[in-house]
């Protein structure tokens, strides 16, 4: 059945995206068929998550505790497996440690056949999808009924899940209704969610009553008492574990934690992170085999309950020894990383995912459990925007995992492609182009040049290339200094200031750099300019980690010396600031260097805010120097994704509100440009799909006030917005320069 995919490839046909061609087919299918439902549902979950975690007073502490528990558990995993086995077997249950998915399915098949099972009811379990148990049992004549509503929908449509928590999130109500009407004989309208749920419930109730075996997964398993935690929204897990006499639980070995006392930490985090609920509708804490009478509603005469715990390795122990992929084992499968991801919101797990593991975290899991690096190719869809990092309840650096996969894929394929070398060496190319910027800009806009770039380096010719500044920031600054001596400065300044001349600002955004210099000096805050040095961002984004690390080490030595000499570093480009305050923690071996950079690098408006908070005289001087005639009626501000991650995303709105200005902020996690991502031919359509979401919000603001000023801190953000609206977009510091 190709339900609702008449002109496009079915998701099952692109489940394996080991080639670039199959990945592109999946992207086209998702954008055409699934994108609208995905965006609505994931953004709803994401908005609810912000509300839910905002009510957790100890949210950051909970995340630290969860991370610590998972790190300790993975470190002591062999011992925990032994303790868990003893605990379960002491109660009469059985534990089977499966090294491979075939060992797991063979064991489960044996249990079902020995019990004479004809019908198995199964709760939602991503681990069961990993081993493909449904097909194994069905091939030997055993019926398997998925009892989770979303999994039931997918079983009917023969699709793989597109999301960890909400497997059918890509399907709209209308598409589900059409599917049921085509598959089942019914006179019901099935027009509402309630009607669809009732219809499925009536079918599944008969399955529950007739089932011989129940299969579940496990959110967590405690080693001390063999206790299983299962959270759910529908109550089907309770029926699966209590009605049949035989219960089989499938759990990856990474789900084992030391004690059931640790459950509380994860119970608080799981629902809030995944669906934005304070608590899951049903929270089951079981110590099977359950001490309950066997009901035999299926007509059998079973007298005793049976419990089998299948612990699955299938590559996990190998991941545990991998210094990079090990971190993926900390995942608690909450889906927060998917819901916050702009790329996932656009294409979902049928494109941004493997056969069962999806989204940003899915790349590492797919590579780890299949042993096939090429199966994790969809990790290329991770833009590195980092929005998943603060949203993960166990603080997994998911972009880093995907960058590692990109690097390994590149090396396995004989080295960096021309495309990756082109985008990863922006510093060298920009330096060369800026020798004759007018000529470079003219050549870049020639139709023939664009065609060559598209064919050779995969730069989509539909995307307008940014221009190089007529004069570099360094040259502009030198000319400025010849006419303007630095001000004497404020005695309240705790440290001297240096504007970092990053390659983006120096070669393409000199006006932003000079606006920064002028603003600080108009406020009697002397500032000088650093040397121009590559920070490694471009190389890292392409998976060129060796090159990124070399650039980071060279630059860190230079900046650390400035900091030790009493300097604060001002950084106008958010992606570069994020490198200093986030990525350098992985790229640098010296923790003290990273700590210094993290503490002494600032967005320009962020630094001004902090200085105003500490100095009332400066705050008063700031307000008194504003030009009343230049005050805009309203500001629309889009915060760069990485600025939000590192805690600087609210700096500009706070600054302008301090001045009494009205500011509306975007609720889009990422503009979709994400540096080189939006230029690449393979991902241009995704980028534009995401950008339209932001464009619609800005257009709505403009409709209510045509004089609104649009601001965005990131270079790529400004390019994306300008491309969507053909409207001037400024860096916040440029507007401040006009106001003073």
What features would you describe in this structure?
It is a single chain. By secondary structure, the chain is of the alpha/beta class. The chain has four domains: 301 residues, 3-Layer(aba) Sandwich (Rossmann fold); 100 residues, Alpha-helical ferredoxin (Fumarate Reductase Iron-sulfur Protein, Chain B, domain 2), CATH 1.10.1060; 152 residues, no CATH class; 116 residues, Rossmann fold (3-Layer(aba) Sandwich). It contains 34 helices and 17 strands. The chain has a six-stranded parallel β-sheet, sandwiched between helices. A four-stranded mixed β-sheet has the order 8-5-6-9, sandwiched between helices. Strand 5 and strand 6 form a beta hairpin. 52% of the residues are buried.
Concise synopsis of the structure shown:
With 740 residues, this protein is an alpha/beta fold. The protein has 4 domains: 11-311, 3-Layer(aba) Sandwich (Rossmann fold); 317-416, Orthogonal Bundle (Fumarate Reductase Iron-sulfur Protein, Chain B, domain 2); 417-434 and 469-602, no CATH class; 625-740, 3-Layer(aba) Sandwich (Rossmann fold), CATH 3.40.50.
């Amino acid at each position: 059945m190709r339900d609702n995919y008449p002109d496009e490839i079915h998701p099952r046909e692109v489940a394996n995206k080991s080639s670039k061609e199959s990945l592109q087919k999946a992207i086209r299918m998702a954008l055409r068929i699934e994108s609208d439902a995905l965006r609505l549902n994931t953004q709803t979950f994401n908005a609810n998550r912000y509300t839910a975690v905002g009510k957790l007073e100890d949210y950051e502490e909970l995340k630290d505790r969860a991370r610590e528990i998972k790190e300790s558990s993975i470190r002591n995993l062999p011992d925990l497996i032994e303790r868990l086995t003893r605990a379960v077997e002491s109660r009469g249950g059985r534990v089977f440690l499966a090294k491979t998915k075939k060992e797991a399915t063979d064991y489960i098949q044996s249990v079902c056949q020995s019990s004479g099972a004809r019908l198995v009811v199964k709760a939602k379990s991503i681990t069961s999808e990993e081993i493909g148990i449904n097909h194994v049992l069905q091939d030997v004549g055993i019926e398997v009924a998925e009892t989770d509503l979303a999994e039931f929908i997918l079983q009917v449509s023969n699709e793989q899940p597109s999301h960890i928590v909400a497997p059918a999130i890509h399907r709209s109500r209308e598409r589900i209704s059409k599917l049921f009407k085509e598959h089942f004989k019914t006179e019901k309208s099935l027009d509402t969610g309630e009607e669809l749920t009732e219809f499925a419930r009536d079918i599944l109730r008969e399955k529950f009553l007739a089932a011989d075996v129940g299969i579940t997964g496990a959110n967590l398993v405690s080693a001390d008492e063999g206790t299983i935690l299962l959270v759910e929204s529908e109550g089907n897990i309770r029926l699966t574990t209590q009605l049949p006499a035989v219960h089989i639980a499938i759990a990856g070995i990474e789900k084992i934690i030391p004690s059931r006392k640790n459950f509380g930490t994860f119970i608080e985090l799981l629902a809030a992170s995944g669906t934005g609920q304070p608590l899951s509708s049903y929270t089951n804490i079981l110590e099977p085999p359950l001490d309950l009478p066997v009901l035999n509603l299926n007509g059998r005469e079973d007298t005793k309950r049976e419990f089998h715990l299948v612990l699955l390795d299938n590559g996990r122990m190998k991941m545990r020894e991998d210094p990079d992929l090990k971190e993926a084992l900390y995942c608690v499968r909450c889906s927060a990383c998917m819901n916050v991801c702009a790329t996932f919101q656009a294409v979902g797990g049928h494109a941004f995912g493997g056969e069962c593991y999806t989204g940003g975290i899915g790349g590492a899991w797919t590579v780890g459990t299949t042993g096939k690096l090429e199966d994790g190719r969809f990790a290329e869809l991770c833009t590195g925007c980092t929005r998943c990092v603060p949203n993960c309840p166990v603080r997994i650096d998911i972009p880093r995992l995907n960058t590692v996969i990109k690097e390994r894929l590149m090396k396995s394929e004989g080295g960096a492609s021309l495309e990756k070398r082109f985008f990863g060496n922006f510093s060298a190319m920009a330096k060369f182009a800026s020798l004759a910027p007018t000529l470079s800009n003219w050549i870049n806009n020639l139709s023939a040049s664009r065609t060559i770039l598209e064919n050779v380096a995969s730069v989509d010719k539909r995307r307008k290339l940014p221009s190089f500044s007529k004069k570099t920031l360094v040259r502009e600054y030198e000319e400025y200094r010849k006419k303007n001596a630095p001000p004497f400065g404020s005695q309240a300044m705790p440290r001297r200031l240096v504007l970092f001349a990053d390659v983006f600002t120096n070669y393409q955004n000199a006006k932003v750099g000079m606006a920064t210099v002028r603003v600080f000096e108009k406020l009697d805050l002397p500032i000088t300019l650093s040397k121009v040095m590559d920070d490694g961002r471009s190389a890292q984004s392409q998976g060129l980690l060796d090159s990124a690390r070399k650039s980071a080490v060279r630059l860190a030595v230079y900046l650390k010396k400035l900091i030790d000499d009493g300097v604060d570093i001002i950084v106008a480009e958010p992606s570069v600031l994020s490198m200093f305050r986030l990525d350098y923690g992985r790229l640098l071996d010296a923790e003290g260097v990273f700590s210094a950079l993290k503490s002494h690098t600032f967005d320009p408006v962020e630094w001004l805010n902090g200085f105003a908070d500490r100095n009332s005289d400066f705050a008063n001087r700031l307000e008194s120097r504003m030009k009343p005639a230049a005050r805009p009626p309203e500001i629309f501000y889009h915060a760069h994704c990485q600025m939000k991650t590192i805690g600087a995303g609210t700096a500009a709105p706070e600054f302008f509100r301090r001045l009494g200005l009205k500011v509306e902020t975007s609720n889009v996690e990422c503009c979709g440009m994400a540096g080189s991502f939006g230029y690449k031919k393979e991902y241009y359509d995704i980028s534009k799909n995401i950008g339209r979401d932001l464009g619609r919000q800005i257009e709505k603001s403009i409709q209510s006030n045509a004089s609104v000023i649009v601001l965005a801190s990131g270079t790529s953000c400004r390019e994306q917005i300008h491309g969507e609206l053909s409207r001037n977009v400024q860096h916040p510091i440029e507007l401040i320069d006009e106001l003073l």
